[in-house]
Amino acid sequence: MAAEPRWLEDEEQRAWFALGSVLARLPAALDGELERDAGISHFEYVIMARLSMVPGRRMRMSVLATLAEGSLPRLSQAVGRLEKRGWVYRIPDPGDGRYTLAVLTDEGYDKVVESAPGHVETVRRYVFDQLTRSQVRQLASIAERILRALPRDDTWPTEMPASAPPATPRH
């Protein structure tokens, strides 16, 4: 006979449903703002922002996919769209030709700089303006704990690339 499921308590169920709603609604709100104001999706913005924050504005596609929380095929499609607009290009990794690097162009960097203020304001309005400093620290701690419990695939880097000092407002 199977063990009885560990049903959620009332407070856990309330938290779970609230988190589920945030996970469903926040990405749509961020996409809507960026599509309207900058003509790009949130995923495309994250790709360019991540590239803008590393030395040389270049990164292996596999690492970038992980940092952008997308699959390699999804990343490849998005980078293809960004290439058509002249914001990103791909080259073989000179250190290991089996890999491909995504490189942010000067025009792509300018697009991130142009898009960042509106995006940051939206993030502040929907997330950080709703929380106290203590709650922000708790949110970071909670999210990091949940992330550690989630499965990772083999492409997850053991070390994150170092960030370059931001030349633009933090994303």
How does this model look, in words?
The C terminus is likely disordered. 57% of the residues lie in helices and 8% in strands. The chain has a domain of 113 residues: Winged helix-like DNA-binding domain superfamily/Winged helix DNA-binding domain (Arc Repressor Mutant, subunit A), CATH 1.10.10. A three-stranded antiparallel sheet has the order 1-3-2. It starts with 9 loop residues before the first helix and ends in a 22-residue tail after the last helix. With 171 residues, it is mainly alpha-helical.
Tally the helices: what do you get?
6
- How much of the residues is beta strand, in percent? 5-15%
Query: What share of the residues lie within helices?
Result: 55-70%
Q: Return the CATH class of the domain at 37-149.
A: Mainly Alpha
Which sequence of SSEs, written as H and E, runs from N to C?
HHEHHEEHH
What is the CATH topology of the domain at 37-149?
Answer: Arc Repressor Mutant, subunit A
By DSSP, the count of extended strands is 3
Nearest-integer average pLDDT: 89
Report the end-to-end length measured between terminal Cα atoms.
52 Å
* Name of the CATH architecture of the domain at 37-149: Orthogonal Bundle
How would you write the strand order of the largest sheet?
A: 1-3-2
User: What summary fits the major beta sheet?
Assistant: 3 strands, antiparallel
**Which regions have little confidence, pLDDT < 50, spanning 5+ residues?**
155-171
Instruction: Report the principal-axis shape.
Output: globular
Name of the CATH homologous superfamily of the domain at 37-149? Winged helix-like DNA-binding domain superfamily/Winged helix DNA-binding domain
Rounded radius of gyration (Å): 18 Å
Q: What would you call the structural class?
A: mainly alpha
